[in-house]
Each structure stands twice: as C-alpha cells, then as structure tokens.
Write a structure and sequence with these properties.
CATH superfamily: Tetracycline Repressor, domain 2
Distance between the termini: 61 Å
Helix content: over 70%
CATH topology: Tetracycline Repressor, domain 2
Largest sheet: none
Strand content: under 5%
Structural class: mainly alpha
Shape: elongated
Order of helices and strands: HHHHHHHHH
CATH class: Mainly Alpha
Radius of gyration: 19 Å
CATH architecture: Orthogonal Bundle
Length: 201
C-alpha cells in the first residue's frame, strides 16, 4: 500500500468514526426513527448519499455503534481486571472504568438503553452476547471475592451496579466541576451495590 493509499484509508476510517460519534448524539437527542441519513451527513459536513460510502444504511450505523462500544467495554474490562492484584481491587477498578465511560459517553448509554430493538436480529444477538460477557467479567471477580456466593447472585449484583452507574449520569450536568463532585459519590454507591450484604457473611 502506497503512502497515498494509506492516507486515504486513514481519512476514511476517521470519517467513519466521525459518523458514528455524530450518530450517537443524534440518536440520543431525537431517537433512531427520527434521524435521517441526511441529518447524519450534515452533522459531519457531507451529503446524505456520501454516508453510503461508509454504511449501507441507518440500521447499519446503529449496529456498528453498539457493536463497537460493546467490544470496547469488554476489552477494557479484561485489561482493567488483569491489571489489579486482587478481586477487591479489580472490582473497584471496574467501577471506576464504567463510571468514566458513563460520564463521558452519555449519548451512547442512552442509545444502548433505548434503541436495541432497531438492530438486525443477528447484530442484536451479538451485542447481547458481548454485554453478557462484560457482566461475566464483573461477576467472575465477585465470585473470587466471595466463592460461597452463587453465580446468579453475582450477576444480579453486577446488573444492579451497572444500572446505577448508567442511569445516574443523565441527571448530572455536563460541567466538569459537577462531574468531579459527583464521580466519587457515584463510584462509592456502585461499589456498595456490588458488595451489599456481603460483609455480614
């Protein structure tokens, strides 16, 4: 591949990521069904038909957005957990990781919660699989910390903590000062949800 071809490929990849970022914002603000490809193109400074150079349609944009974020979260969770020495430290690090994501990717969180039904069935199944694998990383650390606890309870604890983290950022203003002030509180609440009642055993 020549340097010119490499530059073109990089520019195309950048444009694709720009379209995905714009789609997250538009889908979150207006809802998937209310956004046209022309809207998506306009948000990135291109025509609606130009979007077809990157995606075959709006549903494909949604699918790529949610597949990418689900894979990124799973990969990140594995890295975060592997970097810690114990299960307790890994769980605290996972909470920080998810909180960082939720506060910096509010639009994606909103789209993930509302628009899954619009995915193609095979794409939806893959997104669900990735999300389950992500939950399993957390549940696995909980089982290491409390081997006597059953798998279903560990999954339930994880879902409760993730639900708390993912829902709260919508009520936090976007100002950096408020985010800093609420981050520690949110992390502490999520960790408490993960470990609630375990101290008594």
């Amino acid at each position: 591949m020549t340097s010119e071809q490499t530059a073109r490929a990089a520019a195309k990849a950048d444009r694709r990521q720009s379209l995905l970022a714009a789609a997250a914002g538009l889908f979150a603000d207006r809802g998937f069904t209310s956004v046209r490809l022309e809207d998506l193109g306009a948000a990135c400074g291109v025509s609606g038909p130009a979007v077809y150079r990157h995606f075959p349609g709006k549903t494909a944009v949604l699918g790529e957005l949610l597949l990418q974020v689900s894979q990124d979260l799973l990969d990140g969770a594995h890295r975060v957990a592997a970097a810690e020495d114990g299960a307790g430290e890994a769980l605290a690090a996972l909470v920080r990781f998810q909180t960082d994501f939720a506060l910096s990717h509010r639009d994606v969180i909103a789209v993930q919660g509302r628009e899954m039904r619009h995915l193609e069935p095979d794409v939806r199944a893959e997104v669900v699989r990735l999300q389950r694998d992500y939950i399993e990383v957390w549940a696995g650390q909980l089982r290491l910390l409390h081997p006597d606890e059953d798998h279903g309870t560990a999954v339930f604890r994880t879902q409760a903590a993730l639900g708390l983290v993912n829902s709260t950022p919508h009520s936090v203003r976007r100002s950096p000062s408020e985010q800093r002030g609420r981050r520690a509180l949110l992390e502490g609440m999520a960790l408490s949800a993960l470990l609630a009642g375990s101290e008594a055993r």
